[in-house]
Structure formats: structure tokens, C-alpha cells
Amino acid sequence: MSVDKDTVRRIAKLARIALEEERVEPMMNELNQIFAWVEQLGEVDVAGVPPMTSVVEQRLRMREDEVTAGGDADAVTANAPLSEDHFFVVPKVVE
Amino acid sequence: MSLPADPTLFTLADARDAVTSKRISSKELTKAYIKAVEAARPLNAFITETPERALAMAEASDARLAKDEARPLEGLPLAIKDLFCTKGVRTTAGSRILSNFVPPYESTVTQNLWDAGAVMLGKLNMDEFAMGSSNETSYFKPVINPWRAKNSNQALVPGGSSGGSAAAVSGFLCLGATATDTGGSIRQPAAVTGTVGIKPTYGRCSRWGTVAFASSLDQAGPITRTVRDAAIMLRHMASVDPKDSTSVDVAVPDYEATLENGVKGMRIGIPKEYRIDGAPPEIEALWQKGAEWLKAAGAELVDISLPHTKYALPVYYIVAPAEASSNLARYDGVRYGHRAAGVKDIVDLYEKSRAEGFGAEVRRRILIGTYVLSAGYYDAYYSRAQKLRTLILRDFTEAFAKCDAILTPATPGPAFAMGEKSADPVTMYLNDVFTVTANLAGLPGISVPGGLTADGLPLGLQVIGKAFDEATVFKVGRSLEQGANFTAKPATWWRV
């Protein structure tokens, strides 16, 4: 399978990564090179094989459903590029 | 025991014994390393040096030693891959998008090391978000391998993604370093710098506080100068952790205690699928030598087959980008990290912050991951890859019915030149051909120096073990170390 320029624009949009128009074609070529190489996975019969869902077999540990952290708005917002009174500041979202 | 005059040449085990017996203070040892780190800036192994913190930690260690309250790694200077969050010390993951991030918390792995008494020298350079095999994708410029080919001044890569860790250890800038391995990022750089690196079983080390790349593959481990040092360090990195539900509640053994037990009677599997076309003959020759060393030490060699090996790398290049695209969705220019200026709305803010903040390789992998997870393609790519992963694990389970550990080459070649493989992503990806299977199957793997090429560059051998059987991996690794008797060191050309 290979991707075309429209698909590259669409997945860049889905991934929320701005892609300048002149970068679309080189990116398409790079991706197609990788997809062509990955294509060999199609030759394996995987009928009846369960997909791996856990690398090491183990049961998830349960714990009490209780608050274990929080109440530290200073630390949470300390790295924000823009914040005000413990709120993250973003461009206007609602008109 | 006679120790070298220069304390930076100590092994971690030597340094531990010297510090505990008060033949050298932690402060003296730490000062020697701080000087070595400063003198090695041309290697670009460190992103952030923390000499003041190191000295303060060393003084605190000396105070404990004076009261005979030494902990297992008391006063031993280590360096930390810049993927592990360190409270109050900038943690970048080698990326512009985290270039100003100062974590308000400490990763579990580093906390374990500080609780054991270790001293932090600083944060090590790496491929951006651990995506790379040469350290050339770092926003903070590439790391240079301390090793050079005979009669050559050409700069070589230290491997990746833990290239800063491997360069710092092989250049004697720290006793040991933390590293992480998603497809080979501990073992491949260790192999091409003549150091030892172990990726433990998935779940052995907590991933909490380690910047995520591909969560079902990422594991932390040490890079050190000897197998014993790796055994010591891993024990104090590993732990079950309530903050990482995939960390496993299996007791961490004293690997050092059983290290010298030998390989007598062990069955060592030699997988025929690891003979690849186009690999230099030196790789095949070293592999044979490794097998002979183990045989001479009393092990039995067994031919095994891992039939799905050739699919491991393509499987990895679906699974890892898929998980990365999901993990890296958190970088939005709002809560932390780089934020683009002059944007017109919120979507523009996300798109520009991410385009400016991520480098080319990271952007490419996010796009691959987004595509393989997108509607209509999930079954053809991601689901098929996870089924193949089941088959790869099944290969290993069947092989381990016939053997106790598996011996393979660590890399398809020695360190290469800067720029040599960066033009073609698939060529770069092939560096992980021997290491990536252990990540997909969650198994422990160690790389041990095996010898030098005709050009004088280090090559490594890999031992893969059963899940949670790092003790056997260390024993076999130690036996290879004895067989190889690798004593070569890089010339210290970087000290001006």
C-alpha cells in the first residue's frame, strides 16, 4: 500500500503537525519507502493468531480507588508557557 | 587488589569497594569525574552537567560513610540519560519541544539509584525521544563516539538512542549510566562503544517518570564498563512500582552473587536466522568465537530456529510509531514545552508548536503511527503487527524449551560515520536487526564487548534470556567477557 499527497496532508492534520506544502511530497516519498518495506508482513498467514495484548503475562494489580496525589497547582502549571492564576492560557476557543 | 592511579579508570565495583573501605572519598572520586566531564565537552555526551549537585550528593555520601551508614551505591558518580525525569533538573528527551522542561517529580528508576546512595553527574544526550540509532536526531547536536578507527580522525557515531550514555561510559566520564531500550537503544550503542548494556525483561524497571516513546517496548537498563557493574547497577534500578501497572512484582535477585557461577552444563541456542546477507564477515567470525568461548567454558551449543525473525523490524516500525503517535499527542504547547508564537487559533497553536518542537525523524514516526492507527488501516497494519508479535514470542518460547539462553551478534557492524546512514531511514533502522526481537517479546538481552574489527573498532555479542532470567543472562555475559578478555580503551583524543 502506498500513500498519496492528500493522505499525507490528512494524516498530518490528524496528528496536528503543520506540514508546509513543499514538504508534502518528500514526506510522501519517505513514508512510501517505509511502507514498501513493511509490506512483507502481508506474506505471513496470521489466521487464528491472537494479537499480543500484554508483553509479559500478568494480572493487573488492583488498588483502592482513592485520591493519592493532587492539590499542587503550582507544580502542575510551573512549566506552562503561559498561565494565569493556575489556569493554562490558550487562544480563544469559543466565539 | 591494585587500583589504577586515575580513579576515573575504576570499574563501578572497584569504586564501590574503594569508597566503602575509605581508600578514596566520594568527593575525591566525584571531583575527578567532574573534571573528566568538563574535559570531554567535544564529545557532546552531556546535555546538562550538574557538578554542584554532584558535589553536594558526594558530601552527603561521605557523611554517611563516616557514620558507617553506607548504602549499596554510596557515593558512586553516575550519569542519567535525559529521558529520565529528574526533579528540578531540566529533562529534554533530546527534543526542542522539551528543551525548557524542568520536572517537578523524579522518575522511579533515578529515585531508586539516589536511595541507594548514587551521585548524579548530569543528564546525557540522546536521539530525540529515543528515536534513532546514531544520536544524530538530538536537538542538542550529535554525540561523538570516543572510539575512532585506526589511523583516522573521522568522527563516528556512538550508536543510539542512548549514545550519550554509551559515550560517557566508554570515555570514562562516569562509572555507569542509565539508558533505555525500545528496539536496541541500550545494546546497540553499548556494542559500538565497547561497553556492556543490558535491557532487562519488560516490567523489571518502572517506566514511571521516564519520557514515553513506545510503552509496550520501552525498558530502562544500565550501560557500564563490565558485566559485574551492570549486574550491580540493574539491581538498584529495578523495582515493582505502584505508579507503573506494567512493572512486575517479581523479587529482584542479587545478580552479582551468582555472576561467577559459570555456564557449565548450560545449553546455548544459536539461531540460524541471525545469519544475515551483507553483514561483514567479522560479525560472523566474532559470533563463532563467542560460541567457542562458551563451549570451552562447559556450555553445550544447540542449533535453534526463530523463523519469524525477519519480520521483527517491520513489525517494530508499525508498533513503535503507533504507540509513539499516541504518547506524543500530549505535547501541545499548552501545559509544558515549546509553544509557537504568532498563532491564529488553538489548532494553529497545536500544529505549529508540534511542527517546530519535533525534529524530522519524530515527525515522520508520528505520521506513520497516525496512519497505521487511522480508520480503515488498523487491521491491515497494527492488528497484523501485533499478531506477528505473538508469533515472534512463540518462536522464543519454543526455542527456550531447548536452551537456557541464546547467543547472537549485537549489531550488523561497528560504529559508522556521521551522516553515513541518515539519508535512508530503512538503512538506519537495520542497525536494530539483532536487538529488536527481544523488545517485541519482552525478553532480557545483554550486549558484551567481544573484540575489535581490523580497523580497531569494538563489536559486541548479545545474549538473550528467558523472561525474568537476567541472572542467567549475566552469567553467560560474564563468561563471554572472560573469553573475550576485552581490555582495549579509546585514545583520549578529546582532552585538549
What does this structure look like?
The complex is a heterodimer of chains A (95) and B (496). Chain A has three helices and two strands. Chain A is mainly alpha-helical and 95 residues long. Chain A has a domain at 5-42: Histone, subunit A (Orthogonal Bundle). In chain A, strands 1-2 form a two-stranded antiparallel sheet. Chain B has a domain at 7-265 and 404-484: Amidase signature (AS) enzymes, CATH 3.90.1300.10. Chain B has an eight-stranded mixed β-sheet, sandwiched between helices. Chain B has a three-stranded mixed β-sheet with strand order 1-3-2. The mean pLDDT of chain B is 96. Chains A and B meet through helix 1 and helix 2 of A and helix 10, helix 11, helix 12 and helix 13 of B.
Short description:
With 95 residues, chain A is mainly alpha-helical. Chain A has helices at 5-14, 21-38, 73-77, and strands spanning 83-84, 87-88. Chain A has 3 helices and 2 strands.
Strand content of chain B: 5-15%
Radius of gyration of chain A: 23 Å
Report the CATH architecture of the domain at 5-42 in chain A.
Orthogonal Bundle
Beta strands of chain A, count: 2
Largest sheet of chain B: 8 strands, mixed
Query: What is the largest interface, and how many residues per chain?
Result: A-B, 48 and 72 residues
Helix content of chain B: 25-40%
Structural class of chain B: alpha/beta
**Strand tally of chain B, please?**
11
Report the average pLDDT across residues of chain A: 93
Low-pLDDT regions of chain B = none
Helical stretch tally of chain A = 3
